[in-house]
């Protein structure tokens, strides 16, 4: 007859993690880009427009407000590499970012409420759409619909972004 210690050793062995002792594959953490600064004051028009708005793709994802500090230095919106650095892309120099005209991004007027809210928040400043690839062969992309609010070192990038799955 087996002792209590033998039985407990059997139970301990049976309950061990079966992958114990094997190297674990490196998992790629879900890449999240920075959309808002701490203490951000989201413009009311953008907060309202993003409340129940979704970008329609293979996965209908909600629009999320964007509010980031941006020293625009008199030039307005950032170029692709500057934008990648602003959203904390892990490799700004090699980020796959494409700049689109809002009419090119929304040819059917499906997201007019988002565009109007961004225009209102920017008080007439240019509105631009940045298409940011999140890897995986360009299937997962984020669309950032943004404008500038203010001028110089006190400027902000404001707008909305949404994840799209494009297969």
Describe this structure as you would to a colleague.
There is one protein chain. This protein has helices at residues 4-14, 44-50, 80-86, 102-105, 112-121; strands at 54-55, 61-62, 64-69, 97-100, 127-133, 140-149, 156-165. The protein is α+β, with helices and mostly antiparallel strands and 167 residues long. Helix 2 packs antiparallel against helix 5 (112-121). The relative contact order is 0.20. Mean pLDDT is 86; it is low at 25-29.
SSE string: HHEEEHEHHEEE
Low-pLDDT windows of residues: 25-29
Number of helices: 5
- Strand order, sheet with most strands: 3-7-6-5-4
How much is the radius of gyration in Å?
Answer: 23 Å
Query: Could you tell me the number of beta strands?
Result: 7
Taking the sheet with the most strands, its summary is: 5 strands, antiparallel
* Average pLDDT figure: 86
Cα separation of the termini: 62 Å
- Overall 3D geometry? elongated
Q: Roughly what percent helix?
A: 10-25%
Percent of residues in beta strands: 15-25%
């Amino acid at each position: 007859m087996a002792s209590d210690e033998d039985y407990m050793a059997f139970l301990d062995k049976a309950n061990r993690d079966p992958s114990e002792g094997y190297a674990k594959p490196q998992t790629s953490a879900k890449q999240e880009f920075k959309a808002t600064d701490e203490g951000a004051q989201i413009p009311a028009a953008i907060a309202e427009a993003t409340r129940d708005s979704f970008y329609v793709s293979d996965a209908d994802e909600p629009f999320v407000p964007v509010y980031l500090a941006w020293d625009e230095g008199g030039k307005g919106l950032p170029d692709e590499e500057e934008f990648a650095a602003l959203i904390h892309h892990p490799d700004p120099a090699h980020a796959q970012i494409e700049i689109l005209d809002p009419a090119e991004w929304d040819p059917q007027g499906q997201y007019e409420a988002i565009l109007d809210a961004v225009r209102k928040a920017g008080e007439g400043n240019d509105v631009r759409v940045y298409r940011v690839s999140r890897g995986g062969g360009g299937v997962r992309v984020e669309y950032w619909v943004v404008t500038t609010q203010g001028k110089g070192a006190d400027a902000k990038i404001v707008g909305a972004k949404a994840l799209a799955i494009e297969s």
